[in-house]
From TrEMBL:
Transmembrane segments: 111-128, 140-159, 165-185, 197-216, 228-248, 301-326, 332-352, 361-382, 388-411, 423-442, 454-475
The protein, known as: Major facilitator superfamily (MFS) profile domain-containing protein
UniProt domain Major facilitator superfamily (MFS) profile: residue ranges: 55-480
Molecular-function annotations in GO: transmembrane transporter activity
Protein topology in the membrane: Multi-pass membrane protein
Location of the protein in the cell: Membrane
Organism from which the protein derives: Talaromyces atroroseus
Amino acid sequence: MVSNDTTISSLAEHDGPRKDRSAYEIEIVEDAKIAPAVFTEAQERHLVRKLDLWIVPLMMVTYMLQSYDKGILSAASQFNINADLGLTVVIGHEADGTPITNNQRYSNASMIFYVGYVVGTYPMSYLAQRFSVSKIISGATFLWGAVVMSTAGCTNYAGIIVNRLVLGVLESAVAPTFTVLVTFWWTREEQGLRTGLWYCCVGVATAISPLINYGLGQIRGPLASWKPMFLVLGAVTTLWSAALFFCLPDSPMETKGLTESERELAIQRLNRNKAGTINHTFNKHQFFEAFRDYKLYSCTILILLTGVPSGAIGTFGTIVINGFGFSHFESLALTCPIGGLTALSILIVSYVSRKFANSRYLCIAICGIISIVGTVICWVGPRNNRGLLFAGIFLIAVQVASGGLAVSLAASNIAGHTKKATTSATTFVGYCIGNIIGPLIFGASPGPLYRAGFIGSFVCLCAVVAIAAATYVLLRRENAKRDRMHGAPIDHVSVDEELTDVQNPDFRYVL
């Protein structure tokens, strides 16, 4: 293993021409003492298949439950939670008698979740780096399940605000940690698809939850019709936390779920990423380097901007569709295909970006353009054509895939454990801010038109396309510059060196 002093003293050589680094390369080989074992492609395929069937389902179910639990409020709005807790106020009527509503309190109850998410993101990321990932994730999952169950005990506006704030703090443990966890097990070429698999479960939750929620809302008893869905789903989440506690691995170095040969192969694959070591030490230099790196801001702003329309539709989707003239049941049922399209679009772009190298930013731009069309339809479309208006909502859902790709880029284009964890946490702060802005815009815009909300979504998606194009150009130039200065990359950087992508001249950025 190369010492930290050797790594630091060698950075100057790393910055020079490749021919000047031969002494350093020999030092690496001599210090390694034992040549790495050689594995066949069949052995690697077997390991990847094992990881896909073991870790990916755990992440998918967890993220689906997270998305489901935080979104129950939207479904509960169709079962009188707004009236019971004073979240919606009628401020007038249209000429045809349609109520004009003020949904600011409902918007605040949705938005405060993401305030809690922002508050919890950095502490949770720090805890996940310092301690066992499986214990942090399973503990947070158990606690947020209990908080979801406690929602049924809320009786007023203040109660639901506190409840949702705490829920956001606890759920902030999942997504940033999963983003980093993917880099522990899969190569950079494989990460986009695996990130897409767990990230697409936001769509899966949207697709399966409406009819389940409707069924739970039909339970007749002493409780208000919206309360059983919180009690049942919260209980399911607390039970799932046990599966995470016993089954979710931390890293190839620490898990007991691999044989010795599989562990060595997994570590060699980690070396291939040139993304730095897995450790539990906070690196202050990497922390500050992350905030000096424009890639952090590019990914964060992309996720923020895509979060505005997705947060708005996630919160106001059933209400907006109901305003098109659909019944309460139809409004719930029509969110199913929206969730299906969300999941499908994430999977398609994840597969395309895996199949065609350096196509991630292109896919981000294409998804953004498709959703821009949807915002225009909902903004200026005829109000008497509810089918066309719903089609607009359907198209807006595609942009969630852009956010998913930005999440994968935040992991694949950053090296160094602390820098990667910091970047991942920051991108999800952007996600939270976007999900705060979206409901606020829609909440401040009178229903059932919500014109300001659709205009705001249109502007954000136009910015997504522009930023994706600009970042693609900048990273392409950086890759070309490194090729000119250092030549083609070589595989001599060890996973134990803990170099960042800026320090490592063999690192090439995914486009």
